[in-house]
Amino acid sequence: MWFPEGPTQTSIADERETSLTRRPNANEGTKENQPSAHYIRCVSQPRLRTAARALIIDPDDRVLLVQFRFPDREVWAMPGGGLDPGETHVEALRRELHEEVGYDDVEIGPAIWTRTHLFWLSDEFDGQTETIFLVRVDDAEPRRSLLSDQQLRAEFVVGKQWWTLPELHETTATFAPRRLPALTADIVASGPPGAPIDVGV
After folding, report:
1. pTM to 2 decimals?
2. Fewer CB atoms < 10 Å away: N or C end of the chain?
3. 108 DSSP assignment
4. Domains in the chain and their CATH numbers?
């Protein structure tokens, strides 16, 4: 489900940034247990997990984000997660939205952004490549997540919140992607792009 923020490097494709951090584990707190940045930089053909996320916007142009809390940081990000075997992006996104934020009846709009970043995810994956879809909802009534609070905390999810555009720009909170406030403002002002845009880390 998760993609943490961390130190970055520039790749060879259009100044794309990729994260060089690992997924925190509540049972691992020492540096000795964590793969080094050198290890990740040496991955010449990274094994990337495929994921889908949603930029959810309500009629008042507020954005629904979920809060992730790790031992060393807190990050606000768009709901979504990795594709299960056999799932399409849209199928995975519908499942993830139901699980995380309780939306099970929304129309999935166009793909607007992509995001690829390297980080230690597991012994199987070296990073994640994401496609972000625009989702417009008719109301912002609180929805109950399909997963329990305990299940969400196991994925480091501790909250969700609607953000106005001014709140996004004025807060000192960390977002993923980091340019989320400006990117969201562009979508609200101009609509979705003609093709998905690489938004970096």
Report:
1. 0.75
2. N
3. P
4. 8-191 (3.90.79.10)
